[in-house]
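Run log, item B.
One chain of 107 residues. Sequence copied directly from the ordering sheet:
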Amino acid sequence: MAIMLTDSAAERVKRFLTERGSGAGLRVGIKTTGCSGFAYVVDITDEIGEDDRVFESHGVKVIIGSESLSYLDGTTIDFSREGLNEGFSYDNPNVKSLCGCGESFGI
């Protein structure tokens, strides 16, 4: 099992951590929502729980809760900017369908 960050995503997370002044790494998970079923949840976290899995990618710890791990296995997270828009994108091999607005996905 693995979760990877691209160079661009790792650099953005490192900047978040530096600006914040602390943090254990990037927590990635999923929640039930939207028209297709799931959405990604991403945040800087200060704690690594007992049931968490930790992956290191480009010097950044990516922390996944055990309840999300099977849905995220094999995912690569990227970060990009286009004009005034910026954000993370996900290449998740487990996704079977996407909603029309791009906010949720089905597995």
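Observations after the first pass:
- The chain has one domain: 4-106.
- Residues 14 and 52 are 20 Å apart (CA to CA).
Flagged for discussion on Thursday.
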